[in-house]
Predict the 3D structure of the following.
Amino acid sequence: MEGKGILNKWFDDATTVTNLLVTCFFPTVSLLAIGPTHWAKLLSACTGRDISGDELMAVGDKVFTLQRAYLARAGITRKDDDWPERFYREALPEGPAKGARLTREMTNKYLDEYYEARGWDKATGLPGKKKLVDVGLKDVANDLARRGKL
């Protein structure tokens, strides 16, 4: 699973963008046929406002971070980013990784990498004040601080 955290972040942001554009994410996520650069060109053509793929992905990051902040208000933290216990007990029954079993060490290493890629706190799995401010969510950071979630 090494190296998958940054890849997962990219896919989360790309999926968020395609959902925001109310488009089918199948060509983006499954086929990798259309990406942020393509979506940005289409959006620019429709709106007359030039936007780059990087700017569009920043919007995806902001919205995904906002979603996590909303979950933080409800008490969701790193402890909730886990697989069911059976994933750690039962070996894969078939396929190229037949017999393999997920370990807590693997999951924790992946989560550390993913949270680092997102700029979130590794211990809590939540966006901190700096991340929230960096993506333009200072008011959300202040709200979470008032609630004792930062």
Notes: The mean pLDDT is 93. Residues 23 and 142 are 33 Å apart (CA to CA).
